[in-house]
Design brief:
Length: 367
Amino acid sequence: MADRSKPIRVAVVGAGGIAQGQHLPGLRGLGNRVEIAAIVDMDASRAAEVAAEWGAPSSYSSVADMLAEVRPDLVVVCTPPGSHADAVIRSLDAGASVWCEKPPTLSLAEYDAIVEHEGSGGPYASYVFQHRFGSAAQQLRAQIAAGELGAPLVGICHTLWYRDTAYYDVEWRGKWETEGGGPAMGHGIHQMDLLLSLLGDWTEISATMATLHHSVETEDVSFAHVTFESGAIVSIVNSVLSPRETSYLRFDFADATVEVEHLYGYDNSHWKWTPAPHVDAAVASAWAPTQNLASSHAVQLEELVGSLERGERPAASGHDGRRVLELVAGLYQSAFTGRRVRRSELTPDNPFYWSMNGVRSKESADV
């Protein structure tokens, strides 16, 4: 458990737009519960500029140097996907917990390797999946757990976004080796994590994907049909080809339909509860949340810091952070092989455990 008489000392790795637009404001919003102790970026001058802007006393161009000198309690990783695993493992080995941007890693193998560097009581690695932390999602999660809406039956999880060709001018985007996949990995992963945080683990997936427009190695659109342990069936679409952008999730329960439509974040106004005809109106009137917390990095960060202060494993870590990568791996395996894939197949003897396009195996990884 952290000493609550002292602030949690935080280092931010990666001084780009996501760090300055989301993570650093979220940290500052926690006041004296945290101290921004260091900024790290490969561009030393940018690290120094961002450190000066946000009041961090030190800046570095090397994660290893920062860890040796600063000894932070928490490291926030905001770098491109291909560098996540190395930064997370180095931080855990130095005794720091980690909060890492999505996607967590490029493969299930990398994710499991990271878990091996956690301690039984910490440090822990957790991941940025902020959409599950808004008040409406938390209300729905509690209702599902209590059975208030009846059994989950049918679902829709659509991430219909638009990215122009210039978006892929960034060297690491659109490549299996450095991004790990297309919109299923880098865009729809947020909505799919929200889906899984509500409905739990899946059992089978059937998927197709295509590269219809962009000149990239990965897909630019995918469709999937997923069966959950509860028996619920869900349709998932991930696209970067959709000019009218939207993120839409719908859950049909025996006693209600619950929907949310937003783009990059929601509050309660984006959600709607519709009771089935047989449900008493007085019962349905109590379903909507009263507290209004928007989904945001700041809301998840506050929960994370609270977990560290209590010495608890944070949400979106361990199995709770891994399940969306399992879904993505199953989606890609099904799309590449043209067959239905069971979650139980995603073991180390499966090449899709080692890379999302199935080109690696345990043997090649050991070379």
